Amino acid sequence: MDPTLVSVTDVVRRVLPEDRAGALSGPDQELRDLGLGSLELVSLLVAIEDAFSVRLPADVMHQATFRSVRTLTAALRTATEAEDPHARPR
């Protein structure tokens, strides 16, 4: 499995309430279905930026980015490549 996708999944599980962390069934599951509201999405944004030492640009700050682990991973890759085209998210 893609290591960046696994890392993003781990961050999402840490942000989810404990009783819902195990309910994340895969990278395409809707995060809102797991109870992530607007406050939790802000926490998720901060956690992703901290974990990967990157700032997500304003142009990816929309609901579609935070739809799933997969869409969040794609936005992370875009942000990482924009900062350094030769960098890879850790």
Automatic annotation (TrEMBL):
InterPro entries: ACP-like_sf, PP-bd_ACP. This is Phosphopantetheine-binding protein. Residues 2-80 form the Carrier domain. Pfam families: PP-binding. SUPFAM superfamilies: ACP-like (SSF47336). Gene3D superfamilies: ACP-like.
